[in-house]
Amino acid sequence: MHIQEVFNAIYSNHCYEYLIIDRNFEVVEYSDKVFDFCDKDAFTQSKNIFTIIPELFGLENDLLDILDKKNTIHKIPYVSKNDNYVNIYIHPGRDLNQQYETAIILFENITKIAKAKRQLIQEKNENNLLLQEISNKNAQLEQYNNHMQQLVKEEIKKNLEKQKMLELQTRYSQMGEIIGMITHQWKQPLNAISMMTNVLKLKQKNGAINTKLLNEKLDDILMQVGYMSQTVNDFQHFFNPIKDTIYFNAYDSIQSVLELVKSEYFHQNIDVVLSGDKTLTVAGLPNELNQVVLSLLKNSKDEFIKKPHKHMKIDINIAQIDDKAIITVTDNAGGIPKEIIDTIFDIYITTKKDGSGLGLNISKNMIEDHMNGKLSVSNTSDGAKFTIELPTTIPE
Known about the structure:
- By secondary structure, this protein is of the alpha+beta class.
- Among the domains are: about 5-110, PAS domain (Beta-Lactamase), CATH 3.30.450.20; about 240-390, Histidine kinase-like ATPase, C-terminal domain (Heat Shock Protein 90, 2-Layer Sandwich), CATH 3.30.565.
- Helix content is about 55%, strand content about 20%.
- A 5-stranded antiparallel β-sheet has the order 2-1-5-4-3.
- The longest helix has about 100 residues, at about 110-205.
- The mean pLDDT is about 80.
């Protein structure tokens, strides 16, 4: 028996099952459970080790080297046997001085280790695939985000250009309306100048002109020309673009608007009253505030034209509450329909038959985007009330 040799081999290699072969490569001894790792059916037909363990086929010389003491051990790692994984070790057996009589073939069961390693490799591969997929998705997402950011920038640019164009169109529309008002206002002084000139001509023809009369009529003409000149100056100031936020007197600024349009509203029997703090200084863009006030006045006038009554009135009040300038424009034209009052500032929302729905939207943008303020609306018992909030200091 080779008990001691087997024990020595098992002890040194931590193996538990074995086969012992002679120099003819025939099995002479084996452990009880060795057939968990080799072919038992082949063993019943032949004791030849190459039949029982085909993995050793071709290793005849390696086996002889061990038997002839030319080598001490041979290892075949990671062999799959009957749903198990083993390392096969070949050790020398019984010593016959010049050579070994037998060789010991040991089976080290590494199934748990191999399966765990395989599981780790599989999980690693799966993780690598998952990481690669995540990386690809992230790259796609980044590309998509970059594309969307570019689209957003382009849309913002388009919207800004469109907004500027709409504001410019509104400015031109207001300019045309004011030019019409100025034309109407100039008729009276032009008629007065024409009449005074004709009087002077007639007096001169009749020889009845004197220095006093001439000076009086010339003073009257100069007064009318001065009025017309002031109207032109107000018009130029109104449409002179100021891009930087400045401090200005709210009352004086709105008063300049009323000077331009008062004749038109007078002829429409609409009473426009400006009241409140005459000294309040606000921080913003005066011309844009003027355009907003003009737009609100025009909306009220249009409502009065649709639904006229005896006491048509627009009240403009200026006050300071805390650090805010509060400008209210209130009319008694019947108010805004409840179904659209919450969306009245949205683009293309209008109560007018031929309205564009741009005026209030642009006005809100001017107050809130350009002047860091707020524009809101509410209904009173008999009309609409627009409230403009503006800062009284320029933010640092």
